[in-house]
Amino acid sequence: MTFYSEIDKSSKKPVIILGGGGHAKVLLDILNECKVNIIGYTDINASGALSEELKYIGDDEVIFRYHPAEVSLVNGIGLVGDSSLRRRLYEKFTSLGYDFKQVIHPAAVISATASLGAGVQVVAGSVIQPGVTIGDNVIINTRASIDHDTIIGSHSHISPGATICGSVIIGCSVFIGAGATVVQNIHIGDSCVIGAGSLVLHTLPSNKKAYGVPAKEVSK
Question: What is the mean pLDDT of residues 46-51?
């Protein structure tokens, strides 16, 4: 296992944070701890959670002042059950040649055999075990645990304190709520939402919501 002490070692470009809310504030703390050069943040206005901590440089259009070779982006948009804005921003800027930096807290524990996609964010206390594969633009939030050989699709969010057991397959744009548990060998389809504190014992097809102990499907 590896305690990460650096972020995305392959790139030393300065970064711009997209968004100024609470999730962006968490990422700013990690970036500062890892001594990353931050140009500023973008948002629709300068009144977000970062307004007193980091330079506001304008809305997202200001990014086009920088060539993709000059800057990396950090996706500061969080999500609660809806990954559409976060995903749209990621796909918009990657299609134009910009790259999204991985943000990994020094206190995250990640196996050397785990594979993390572009722009993945791993917050303090998270554990990612051997053989795990995580797609692009995924959030592994505070104290989440991802066990061996699990696959997590792009644009998904594993919320604080969630436990994903071994050999689980999670699709793209899935939201796993805080403190939820998914038992071993379960498949969760694309765009599913699992409620906070739920216990998932059965496979779920795409585009479903499930809540409770044990988790049961509800209307989405």
Answer: 74
